[in-house]
Amino acid sequence: MQLLKEKVLNEGIVLSNQVLKVDSFLNHQMDPVLMKEVGKEFKRLFAGQKIDRVLTIESSGIAPGIMTALELEVPLIFARKQKSLTLREDIYVEKVFSFTKQETNEITVSRKFIQPGERVLIIDDFLANGEAAFGLARIVEQAGAEVAGIGIVIEKAFQPGGRLLKEAGYHVESLVRIAALDNGKVTFA
Ligand code: G4P
Ligand code: NA
Ligand code: NA
């Protein structure tokens, strides 16, 4: 997606050879015009598939998620992150380990918002090791629903998440793929 590549080149800040800061349009300030195009692009990439709901994770997945759900005219659900939890029967819970933050969060979705047999499109802002995406997929599967696909705004292709998700059989579409963040410079795949 050319518009997104330009945004990454013009406004992205390479913090290290692992981390790209995009807080001017995705992770803090959000660019609604860009997010609208992101939603249209995911609609195009997953065209022809039956999609009943979009699922993302708070907080930065919500903007691309809601714009995609708007294009598809289906509801958006965002998984909530919690430190630890007393067991409850009305929610799905999965553990997600963040390599970036070196901590485990529990992510939760209310059982009433995913029904068995539904097809759910997963959307997220970043793909690194794939932990968040796999956690969301496990929640969909716990519900007896099916993952229609996984749409990622920015994939760091030098980390293994994209490969692992594809090996697991998921249809993954990333709007931009970054091959490297070496020497303070973004190189696209
Ligand atoms: P993974 O899910 O693919 O395994 O990734 P990881 O645990 O490493 O990601 C932890 C958090 O860091 C996630 O946000 C993820 O979106 C974000 N992240 C990972 N790599 C980058 C990067 O290079 N740049 C930026 N800007 N973010 C990155 P989160 O903690 O869930 O935060 P948020 O959704 O509230 O923003
Ligand atoms: Na994030
Ligand atoms: Na995220």
Automatic annotation (TrEMBL):
Binding annotation for 5-phospho-alpha-D-ribose 1-diphosphate: A128, N129, G130, E131, A132
InterPro entries tied to this protein: PRTase-like, PRTase_dom, Pur/Pyrimidine_PRTase, Xanthine_PRibTrfase
EC number, as in UniProt: 2.4.2.22
SUPFAM superfamilies xref list: PRTase-like (SSF53271)
Catalysed transformations (reactions): XMP + diphosphate = xanthine + 5-phospho-alpha-D-ribose 1-diphosphate
Gene3D superfamilies with a match to the protein in the record: 3.40.50.2020
Subcellular location(s) of the protein: Cytoplasm
Pathway: Purine metabolism; XMP biosynthesis via salvage pathway; XMP from xanthine: step 1/1
A GO CC term assigned to this protein in UniProt: cytoplasm
Keywords noted in UniProt: Cytoplasm, Glycosyltransferase, Purine salvage, Transferase
GO BP terms, alphabetized: purine ribonucleoside salvage; xanthine metabolic process; XMP salvage
Residues binding xanthine: L20, N27, K156
Domain Phosphoribosyltransferase intervals: 47-157
Domain of life per record: Bacteria
One Gene Ontology molecular-function label: xanthine phosphoribosyltransferase activity
PANTHER family reported for this sequence: HYPOXANTHINE/GUANINE PHOSPHORIBOSYLTRANSFERASE, XANTHINE PHOSPHORIBOSYLTRANSFERASE
Description of how the protein assembles with itself and partners: Homodimer.
Stated family: Belongs to the purine/pyrimidine phosphoribosyltransferase family. Xpt subfamily.
Function according to Swiss-Prot or TrEMBL: Converts the preformed base xanthine, a product of nucleic acid breakdown, to xanthosine 5'-monophosphate (XMP), so it can be reused for RNA or DNA synthesis.
Protein name, entry field: Xanthine phosphoribosyltransferase
Lineage: Bacteria, Bacillati, Bacillota, Bacilli, Bacillales
Name of the encoding gene: xpt_2
